[in-house]
Design the sequence.
């Protein structure tokens, strides 16, 4: 059972980690929009540069929409409820700037494909990412595609340091975490 001591400990953990906003659970369009608004307002009160605000907001929207789309794509599967309820995003600030950390459960069969895509993007510089983005736009979409594959490229273009990710096996699924610094 969750009690006041646990809540205080959670608040202390979030505060000591520099976390400004955190959400865990099912991502809906409404929740994404509300949290996005909160991010913008918070950063505006800190008088952050517009470009920083835009990049943090855009990365937040892309990561949470990726979680939402992936979860919904598993509708009807026996792991759907676990995946759909596993999303989490935190936005924080430290002495290096802002960071967005998002994660969710994914099927192990999807983990290798996602890791390969990220591994191909992480070493690229800004010019190479721009080129990859333009190449990707021109490609035809496979019939089973959930998008044009531009989201992760766009995130990589907006971050100030290379993206970092991890995959942790949990039962017959993997927990995917993506950390991006702006």
Sequence:
């Amino acid at each position: 059972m969750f009690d006041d001591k646990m809540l205080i400990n959670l608040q202390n953990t979030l505060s000591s980690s520099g976390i400004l906003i955190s959400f865990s659970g099912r991502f809906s369009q409404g929740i994404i929009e509300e949290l996005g608004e909160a991010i913008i307002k918070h950063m505006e009160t800190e008088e952050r540069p517009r470009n920083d605000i835009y990049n943090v907001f855009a990365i937040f929207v892309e990561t949470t929409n990726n979680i939402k789309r992936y979860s919904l794509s598993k509708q009807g599967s026996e792991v759907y409820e676990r995946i759909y309820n596993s999303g989490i995003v935190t936005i924080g600030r430290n002495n290096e700037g802002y960071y967005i950390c998002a994660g969710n459960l994914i099927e192990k069969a999807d983990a290798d494909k996602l890791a390969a895509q990220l591994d191909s993007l992480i070493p690229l510089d800004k010019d190479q990412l721009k080129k990859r983005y333009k190449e990707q736009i021109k490609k035809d979409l496979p019939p089973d595609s959930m998008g044009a594959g531009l989201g992760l490229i766009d995130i990589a273009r907006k971050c100030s340091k290379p993206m970092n990710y991890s995959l942790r096996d949990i039962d017959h699924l993997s927990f995917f975490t993506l950390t991006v610094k702006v």
Q: What stands out?
A: The domain at 24-181 is CATH 3.30.565 (Heat Shock Protein 90). The mean pLDDT is 92. The CA atoms of residues 49 and 108 lie 39 Å apart. The radius of gyration is 17 Å.
